[in-house]
């Protein structure tokens, strides 16, 4: 089923039954902070592990995750893998779920802090909007992920009430998820918007090696702002898309129905 898109009109076809922020994610460098240095090291010692936000959705009997998180992404020691395992199991069990309940995972992009814990859901189908030059099977092998893989068609309802759309900039293949819950349009932005401090300042996270385009990143952030009522950033708590009306006014009238296509 096709979801109808438009900046003045988001035609809500279906709604999800439940949406949970399993973990809000954390960020090593908020807007205005300096990379590196003693305070950055202390943040890490305190448990700021740079993991992505993880969202669980239940819709029409299906349980899906958007991004999986992975704490301390550079550390592949068994101790860190066990730490991740415990975090995932605890965050699921608090809400009455186990890893076996998750049928599908959508990843916003192929970065380890977003996809790394897919290894804890080996039976869940791993869905993605696009991928970098390295083919997904090679990429998932490189990351140690054995999940069945499937590319999603953008702007098509994947489960009732959920679709995905391209948000390039952070890297070339990045996608975000659009979720309809009650009367609210929620965008699970991934690193198209890493945290509210980046949204507040219209700022782009520039530190990843595969960074694609600042201009595209800013346009993706604007598109998310136009569509969303509520934004779940890649590494932080949900916040209201308070720039929605301003961003919509920036568009020429004739772009209303097509700008999001
Ligand atoms: Zn990230």
Can you walk through the features of this model?
The protein has 261 residues and is an alpha/beta fold. It has one domain: Ribonuclease Z/Hydroxyacylglutathione hydrolase-like (Metallo-beta-lactamase, Chain A). Helices cover 23% and strands 20% of the residues. It has 7 helices and 11 strands. It has helices at residues 37-45, 78-93, 112-115, 136-142, 196-200, 214-227, 244-249, and strands at residues 18-23, 54-59, 62-66, 104-107, 125-128, 149-151, 162-166, 175-181, 184-190, 230-233, 239-240. A 6-stranded mixed sheet has the order 1-2-3-4-5-6, with no helix packed on it. A 5-stranded mixed sheet has the order 7-8-9-10-11, with helices on one face. The longest helix is centred in the N-terminal third of the chain and has 16 residues, at 78-93. The chain is globular, with a radius of gyration of 17 Å. It binds zinc ion. Zinc ion (ZN) is lined by residues 52, 111, 113-114, 191, 234-235.
């Amino acid at each position: 089923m096709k979801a109808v898109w438009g900046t003045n009109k988001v035609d809500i076809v279906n709604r999800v039954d439940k949406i949970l922020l399993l973990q809000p994610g954390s960020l090593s460098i908020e807007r205005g902070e300096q990379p590196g240095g003693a305070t950055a090291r202390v943040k890490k010692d305190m448990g700021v592990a740079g993991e992505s936000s993880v969202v669980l959705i239940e819709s029409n009997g299906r349980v899906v995750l958007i991004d999986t998180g992975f704490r301390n992404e550079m550390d592949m020691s068994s101790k860190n893998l066990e730490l991740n395992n415990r975090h995932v199991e605890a965050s699921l069990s608090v809400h009455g779920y186990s890893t076996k309940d998750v049928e599908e995972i959508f990843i916003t992009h192929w970065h380890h802090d977003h996809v790394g814990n897919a290894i804890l859901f080996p039976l869940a189908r791993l869905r993605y909007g696009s991928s970098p030059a390295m083919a997904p099977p090679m990429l998932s092998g490189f990351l140690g992920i054995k999940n069945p893989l499937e590319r999603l068609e953008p702007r098509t309802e994947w489960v009732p009430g959920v679709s995905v759309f391209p948000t390039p900039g952070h890297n070339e293949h990045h996608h975000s998820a659009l979720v309809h819950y009650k009367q609210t349009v929620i965008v699970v932005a991934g690193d198209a918007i890493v945290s509210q401090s980046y949204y507040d300042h219209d700022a782009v996270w520039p530190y990843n090696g595969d960074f694609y385009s600042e201009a595209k990143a800013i346009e993706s952030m604007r598109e998310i702002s136009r569509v969303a009522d509520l934004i779940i950033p890649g590494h932080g708590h949900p916040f209201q898309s308070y720039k929605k009306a301003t961003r919509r006014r920036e568009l020429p009238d004739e772009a209303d129905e097509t700008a999001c296509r």
